Amino acid sequence: MSRTTRLLTLLEMLRSRRVPVTAYELALELGVSERTLYRDIATLIDQGAPIHGEAGIGYVLKPGLFLPPLMLSEDEIDAVVLGLRYVDQRGDDVLRKAAAQALAKIDAVLNASGKDAMRAPTVSSGPPVQEFPVNAVPLTSLRAAIRGQCKLRIAYLDAQGEPSNRVVWPVVLGFLDNVRILGAWCEKRHDFRSFRTDRIAAADETGERYPGVRSVLISRYRTHLAKSTRW
């Protein structure tokens, strides 16, 4: 985490609390030393954040820190809420937590009418989704490989339970109503394929980074999806 990101995270942590929080608790949550935490608090105070602290009690963000209101139309707010609620229903634990944090951050900087629109949207993401199949390979590992453009050697079971071993270039994760899929270029098939994540028995990085620009590969994968829905 960069220092800028850490400072913004610390500010959000203080904003979300209504009672003082100790330096030890803040440092533990941020994964830094208390000495680093004290320096970060001092930096925020120097930049104008109204942080009040007392020995033995902790820190609290006092009223007075005003951020520019985020101006979104009601339709834009509906779109944001619908998208994040969809993530809350269909995403994994990491994405659900991120969606909740994103909603809280947006709500914190909306004007009064925007807050009302967010808390009473005109759209709904539908009924809760049933349990997803269990993944042998954590989605966090697949996301890390995607971000690093790492080739993966996967052990895969098809719909008939037949095993195969593939070397794939993971480009994107798809979250459907009842399954998650890994969109990837398959070296065995010399084409894009969609692999259900619950059928990936194992996935190991080969140590190679696949070539190309991932945004271009995603575009090509979407073109493939428009022609085929095999997974």
Inertia-based shape: globular
Number of helical regions: 8
Would you tell me the structural class of the helices and strands? alpha+beta
The N- and C-terminal alpha carbons lie at a distance of 36 Å
The average pLDDT score comes to: 88
How are the strands of the biggest sheet laid out side by side?
Answer: 6-5-4-3-7
The major β-sheet equals: 5 strands, antiparallel
List the quaternary state of the chains.
single chain
The portion of residues assigned to helices is 40-55%
Flag low-confidence runs. none
Question: How would you describe this protein?
Answer:
The two termini are 36 Å apart. The protein folds into 3 domains: 3-61, Winged helix-like DNA-binding domain superfamily/Winged helix DNA-binding domain (Arc Repressor Mutant, subunit A), CATH 1.10.10; 74-119, no CATH class; 139-227, SH3 type barrels (Roll). It is globular, with a radius of gyration of 22 Å. The protein has a 5-stranded antiparallel β-sheet with strand order 6-5-4-3-7. The longest helix is centred in the middle third of the chain and has 17 residues, at 74-90. It contains 8 helices and 7 strands; from the N terminus they run H-H-H-E-E-H-H-H-H-E-E-E-E-E-H. The chain is 43% helix and 23% strand. Helix 2 (23-30) packs across helix 3 (34-46).
